[in-house]
Amino acid sequence: MTFTSPATPAPPTAPTTGPSTTSPSGSSGHLPAHLDADFYGFQDVLTPREQEVALAVREFMEREVRPIADDYWERAECPVHLFKPFAQVGSVGAAWAETARFENSAVFRGWVGMELARVDSSFCTFIGVSSGLAMSSIGLGGSAEQRQQWLPPMAAGDVIGAFGLTEPLAGSDTAKGLRTTATRHGDTWVLDGAKRWIGNATFADVVVVWAKDTADDQVKGFLVRRGTPGFTATKIERKQSLRIVQNADIVLDGVEVAEADRLQGIDSFKDVAKVLRVTRDGVSWQSLGTMIGAYEAAVAYTRQREQFGHPIARYQLIQDKLATALANVTASLAVCVRVSQLQDAGTQRDAHAAMAKSFVTTRMRETVALCREACGGNGITLDAGVARFFADAEAVYTFEGTRDMNNLIVGREITGHAAFV
């Protein structure tokens, strides 16, 4: 099989003014080895090799993504042309032995997501959907042949993936409310239904589609290739959060998929939950990166913005906001590191991942608001560097399980009683 990535337009001319055109360190040149926002030095839990790659990711994001992020966000377009160059940094598909250049910890994989999100949360989602949700589905649910067929080209950036679970009428109740069906006829499955909010779906080479088997009412996973008859993906317009992400409404009308393209290790929604448990950690790290991006932009802005003859960073009320923001970042970083360490140790439970997602996204929402406040009226413009993070936080706060649903998972662990319905 030949794998190709979709053709994309050349990037626009990068803006030449505004705080967001340079790195938070105040220079577009050499970057410091550690982030100022990593106040307690958590980066030191990474191995030297992992720190080296994390810095390479940071440099890529500063060089390739930061100069164009505001323009792409404003135009609601995705820089798909950067997927393969980013893959060459060595971080796409790092979770899987078939594709990794070296052994990677869950902490490292989370740290990479944070590095992406601190420059642009949309780009983090774009990469994460393919290398996280789609590759994890194949890595955890695919046969050895399927893993070998798909994971190496995805890790190389030659194939972009998407993940089709959420539906127009099934979000939080997906486990029981999935309406997309799969009916087997010999060695062929026929898929019918609809999906919503599916990132990357308008240009992905393969979409992992989840559907209920009409024979046993259990959820199965299918690899639907781009161009398959009956599959249509229409971009969702008028979004005001994660605008770079190309979310789509998908219609599946008699889509035929070979048995060879059914994920052989997926037999029920419990198997889907294994994928979501792994990727929910990633959303916590993405939330952390989003608040760090807002914090860094607010610090840079308040140092240069003058009122009453002094930089506003000198004033007590501004320092209080920034100190609170940094405390939120530090507490969230501690949670992210620990929950990923539990994943590495094989002792992570659903409630661990759920608590991390709930806590960190809540702190993120507070932090981006504080940072927006610190920038005053200019904080609502892209030029001040905070507004994009402020808007994008709303989507990150919601997906991969709302705060309420994740708290109920934790509540079930605490009390022994499920309170979902």
UniProtKB/TrEMBL annotation:
The Acyl-CoA oxidase/dehydrogenase middle domain, residue ranges: 162-255
Q: Name one GO molecular function term.
A: flavin adenine dinucleotide binding
- Is Oxidoreductase given among the entry's keywords? yes
Q: Which residues form the Acyl-CoA dehydrogenase/oxidase N-terminal domain?
A: 47-158
Cite the entry's keywords alphabetically: FAD, Flavoprotein, Oxidoreductase
Query: Which SUPFAM superfamilies does this UniProt record tie to the protein?
Result: Acyl-CoA dehydrogenase C-terminal domain-like (SSF47203), Acyl-CoA dehydrogenase NM domain-like (SSF56645)
Top-level taxonomic group: Bacteria
Pfam families xref list: Acyl-CoA_dh_1 (PF00441), Acyl-CoA_dh_M (PF02770), Acyl-CoA_dh_N (PF02771)
Read off the PROSITE patterns from this record: ACYL_COA_DH_2
Q: What are the residue boundaries of the Acyl-CoA dehydrogenase/oxidase C-terminal domain, all occurrences included?
A: 272-414
BP-aspect Gene Ontology terms: fatty acid beta-oxidation
InterPro entries xref list: ACX4-like, Acyl-CoA_DH_CS, Acyl-CoA_Oxase/DH_mid-dom, Acyl-CoA_Oxase/DH_mid-dom_sf, AcylCo_DH-like_C, AcylCo_DH/oxidase_C, AcylCoA_DH/ox_N, AcylCoA_DH/ox_N_sf
Q: Cofactors per UniProt? A: FAD
Question: Which residues are in coiled coils?
Answer: none
Stretch list, region Disordered: 1-29
Which residue windows does the record flag with biased composition (Low complexity)? Answer: 15-29
Q: Which family does it belong to?
A: Belongs to the acyl-CoA dehydrogenase family.
Put simply, this protein is called Glutaryl-CoA dehydrogenase
